[in-house]
Amino acid sequence: MLKIEHLTKTYGDKKAVDDLSIHIQPGEIYGFIGPNGAGKTTTIKCCCGILRFDAGEIDVDGRSVRDDPVACKKVTAYMPDEPDLYEFLSGIKYLNFIADIFGVSKKDREERIAKYADTFELTADLAQPISAYSHGMRQKLSVIAGLIHEPKLIIMDEPFVGLDPIATHRLREIMREHCSGGGAIFFSTHVLEVAEKLCDHVAILSQGRLVASGTMDEVKGDSSLEQVFLELEDKGEPNV
Amino acid sequence: MFKALMRVRFAAYFYNMFSGGGRRKNSRGKTMLFAALMLYVFVVFGALFGLFFSQVADPFHAIGADWLYFGFFGIFTFAMLFILSIFMTTAQLYEAKDNELLLSLPVPPAAIVGSRIFSLLAENYVFELLIFIPSLAVWCAKMPVSAGLVISFVVAALFLPLLAFAFTGLFAWLVSQITSRVRNKTALSTAFSLLFLLVYFVVYSRINIYIRHVVENGASVADAVYRAVRPVYWLGSAVAYGNVGHLLLTILVCAVPFAAVYAFLSATFLRTAGTKRGAAKVKYERRALRVSTSSAAFTKKELTRIGTSSAYMLNAGLGLVFMVGGSVALLVKPSLIAGVAASVPGTVSYFPQTMVFAVCLILSMTMFSASSVSLEGRSVWIPLSAPVAGREVLFAKARAHLTLTLPAVVITGAALSAALKVTAQNALFLFLVPSVFAVFTALLGVFVNLRHPRLDWVSEVQVIKQGASVLIVMLVTMAAVFVPGLAYLFWLGRILPAWAFMTAYAVLLAAVCAVLWGWICRRGEALFSGLLS
Known about the structure:
Number of helices of chain A: 9
Radius of gyration of chain B: 25 Å
Shape of chain A: globular
Distance between the termini of chain A: 20 Å
Distance between the termini of chain B: 35 Å
Oligomer: heterodimer
Number of strands of chain B: 0
Helix content of chain B: over 70%
Strand order of the largest sheet of chain A: 6-7-8-3-9-10
Structural class of chain B: mainly alpha
């Protein structure tokens, strides 16, 4: 579903991502962890077509992000770490705008908005302007907007930040349902316990380079993900 | 602490003015060009004030009322600073996005307010130069000048913006109090702004009458000002006659209200800035959703952005206010146009053509698209991650611009055609040329803003009012009116029939539009998709 091959992205002289390769299959929840500034957000933005990259290739559902970005974006949902949405729109107008952009039918959008707004307890607030929303409410709206077109691939940057425990629990359920239906999820997180419980596969990034990747059991073995992460950070050696 | 805040303010200000907005640095050439444009604006406005002062200097001196010359400097400076900074003050003090961040830091509110006030004052000093330099230059050219006069004038000029701020600061506080209690903040802000504009333009349209009245009745005007606004006399007397007592009084009149307002704003800042905008919560009730194409959705989004921001609506849509307002005035009183024709010497035979250029000139003040890319701000990831071609997003900005502009062009064309009783051919040009010019302005705005984007603004006013792209678009579109307009009036009008010239002008504009269109489709789309790269 998502194939990242030898991705390299530089800002000036600094290599933010250096020769990164990751393959994510349908049905997988793939966790992406690493310290601040490791290159996670840059990688995610490259996958979503928001940032250009210098070398390598990214394919979404068999299509190249570089050559056919519109087709890739059609089957992808991106949920950023900072939900900077259009503050001048109300919640419902923003969701309807996103549904228009993705060409979601009237019936489908009405059903899905009702379903997910109820799930995240946001229905009553949908008429409010987004400028009046709290960070958590914006995060919920961003999640609903991402789900509205039933994407094949969901890419999330720190999706649990700002969500209350109920919303976190419901998002985890939605993630599992999405993958059991054949979709794939690629998300970054600093919450290692969540990654350990939720992910089938995990990749650890440090200073733009992949230092470990594989199934959760392959990466962590008998120890905890936190222990592995700290050890790899200390060594700074690849273990791909 | 205060110094640190001021450093941040000025760094942001200069970054906003001179940086390219992305990771790229602006070239020296671009900075020079921007500086040249600023200089041009200063020269134009400075010349307007210089004209006034050169008309009144001798008559005032002849009746022994030199003080009134400098009194008018004070009146003009106060009025200009009040009008130019009133909405900027509201936006900077109470709507800045970094208010919460600063309030969370161990910084006293007085320091936050102070840093904002002093950066606004710095801007006001720059604006004040537009009047200070021509008034001093005219006086030096016509009257004897002493060192004492120059020193008194400089001191008075340094204190005058403090008085203007005392009033704008209070007004900004009042506006924030009212808007925090009403649901439709945008409508209220727009109403306030339109009221201001109305007063401003009534005064502006009658300025020649006022100047003539002042010149012809200098003694009675001096007497009236002396009786009604004594501080104006103190200011004038301090500068013209070197009266130290009056200079001290002027300083007090400026500094005391400023200090009082500063203290008041500091004391109330925490509560006012922390007040949530908007009124009671509106509960959502499910209803059928309207489906649109992605292009229409982006256009609607742009229109909603315009409709929910009074600053955007008024600063970028000033031309529309003039066009619709002028059309209504023409329909009510068609004889107005005859007065306008008579007041512009040498244009009677070319009047319908002059009106075409006049409408285009007003259109150059309609600049919705010129800040539309910058206004995406931190939300730019939304169009960048959307499954649409970049050109679709960019053309939606031009389309929103035209959705608002073209109806105003039609209304103005109809009103002018009816009032002037023009031929069918001239009526056609009154509709056609401004329509093509509107398309040109819309596409040029997108083009320039793509080349000078600013996505990291704190207050939207920074890009709507102060953005380099807005200034460039305004000057280029004005040049696109003045150069062919003056060429026609003084030269081409004698050798070319009107229809041929107007057709050529429309075709030339259409050709430029086609070039801009092509650029947006190819290079523009690439620039847009790489905005964050």
